[in-house]
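Quick one, tokens below:
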């Protein structure tokens, strides 16, 4: 009797199973009675639109991945899926529209109050600005403002580097091997070869070390770029690319931001070997300019991003562009990032650390 009781299912178990089966039968009957034509017209239209958008988006993402594969993934992108959705959120066209808006002429009567409010918001010292606030015709003119003489004294470091910008030090380190990936900030990386267009480790001198430092300019910083040392610029490369944000919250989560963003890379020689100064564009910052090359145009409408098969624009300076420490190089509209990748002796020591705020002319490191 005990064996029989053990082997027979309980009434409660039987009732639960029967209840589930009954629920399934009710659902199937309801499904048979359901008619698409009885769904309200507005809901049907929203469903059609949603399905269409989802299918179109999936197709575009697939084509984007195919494009990167076909051109050989020149930016060494590790996650095309993530890059696709960042392109959707931060498209180049938005930066182009904001750039056009920043070029709008502002009435003279409003300039002092508007620029003054911006300066107050971002703690800008207006006493350093060379010209009166009402002399800047547009916000773009104000962003790339010049400073009074001696506002940024340049430290004398014959065997070292000074900061080329007013910025925050994001990270620094050594490019230790060929085809290396280095930190954007701690947590995410990018390919040095893809970023510069060549591998600096392959061309370094015996016994030397390739170092790098990332400097972030906030919207309130002085936006002009200066020479970090006595250098002769022999070549410039323009990489058409994305205009994704370069804030630390994104850089530490997503790889390859620097390798796919629009940038201008200046290559030259300094006392200890090769020197690369890269001005990297960002969201709403597609306009990079050089003082010694007025023909440079960035974020152009019909340019194709390099990582999608576009060409790298390259210009040689046969006689070399000789720059003294602190000499003006160019600048940005709004804030962005400058990356230095350079050759040093093994005795080189950094004088700054991640998180430090620096200004043009202050020592970054020396041998």
């Amino acid at each position: 009797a005990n064996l029989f009781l053990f082997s027979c299912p309980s009434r409660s178990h039987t009732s639960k199973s029967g209840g589930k089966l009954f629920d399934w039968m009710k659902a199937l009957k309801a499904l048979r009675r359901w008619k698409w034509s009885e769904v309200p017209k507005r809901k049907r239209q929203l469903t059609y639109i949603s399905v269409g958008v989802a299918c179109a988006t999936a197709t575009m993402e697939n084509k984007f991945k195919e494009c990167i594969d076909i051109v050989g993934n020149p930016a060494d992108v590790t996650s095309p899926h993530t890059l696709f959705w960042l392109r959707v959120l931060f498209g180049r066209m938005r930066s182009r529209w904001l750039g056009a808006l920043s070029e709008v002429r502002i009435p003279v009567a409003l300039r002092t109050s508007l620029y003054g409010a911006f300066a107050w918001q971002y703690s800008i010292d207006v006493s350093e600005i060379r010209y009166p606030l009402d002399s800047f015709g547009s916000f773009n003119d104000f962003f790339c403002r010049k400073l009074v003489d001696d506002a940024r004294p340049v430290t004398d470091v014959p065997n070292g580097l000074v900061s080329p910008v007013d910025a925050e030090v994001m990270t620094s380190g050594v490019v230790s091997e060929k085809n290396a990936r280095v930190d954007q900030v701690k947590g995410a990386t990018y390919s040095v070869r893809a970023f510069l267009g060549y591998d600096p480790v392959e061309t370094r001198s015996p016994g030397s070390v390739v170092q790098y430092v990332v400097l972030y300019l906030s919207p309130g910083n002085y936006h002009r770029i200066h020479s970090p040392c006595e250098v002769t610029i022999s070549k410039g490369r323009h990489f058409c690319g994305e205009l994704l944000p370069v804030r630390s919250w994104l850089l530490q989560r997503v790889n390859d931001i620097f390798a796919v963003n629009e940038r201008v890379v200046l290559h030259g020689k300094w006392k200890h070997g090769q020197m690369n100064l890269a001005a990297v564009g960002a969201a709403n910052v597609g306009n990079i300019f050089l003082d010694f090359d007025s023909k440079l145009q960035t974020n152009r409408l019909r340019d194709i991003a390099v990582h999608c098969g576009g060409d790298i624009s390259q210009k040689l300076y046969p006689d070399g562009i000789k720059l003294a420490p602190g000499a003006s190089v160019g600048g940005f509209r709004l804030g962005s990032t400058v990356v230095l990748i350079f050759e040093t002796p093994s005795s080189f020591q950094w004088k700054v650390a991640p998180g430090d705020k620096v200004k043009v002319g202050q020592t970054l490191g020396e041998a």
